[in-house]
Amino acid sequence: MTTQLQTHDTLPPRAWSDLASLAGHRVARTPRGLSRRALNRACSYIAENLGERFTLDDLARQAGVSRFHFARLFRVSMGESPMAYLLKSRIERAKQMLLQDDRPVCEIAASLGFCDQSHLTRTFRRMTGLTPREFSRLQRNVD
Fold it and tell me: Smallest Cα–Cα separation from 35: which of 85, 88, 76?
């Protein structure tokens, strides 16, 4: 019995799945997601183009995979959809801009690719629980 365990311990992972499939067992494969390079390229593209309109095809092209494949693998890698990641990135940048600049919210909204100020405000409130103005006031009172 000991020699069998030692033999099985030295089998590569692929051999285990082959043995299990021969025995009629299903083997759960761990989802891998995008390669580190593809993920970095897609996330960099998003960060550099937050204020621009781009499509899922554009992001997939950066990662070098099909649109459907990209959306699925991005979710596996990041735990959220590309659109959710994009909105979260835009809101994080909006927070930075609100704290650094005295620009009006409508200018911040336009620079980050939101349709208008109300679109930014609705999204900001949904994700943070505060409006941009409330966030800005709270942060300035803390400082």
Answer: 76
Residues 142 and 90 reside in one and the same domain: yes
pLDDT band for position 32 (cuts 50, 70, 90): confident
Q: Give the 3-state secondary structure percentages of the chain, helix then strand then coil, rounded to 5.
A: 70, 0, 30
For residues 6-22, give the mean pLDDT. Answer: 48
Residues 6+ apart with CB under 8 A from 34: 42, 63, 65, 70, 73, 74, 76, 77
**Residue 38, domain extent:** 29-79
The whole-number pLDDT of residue 140 equals 82
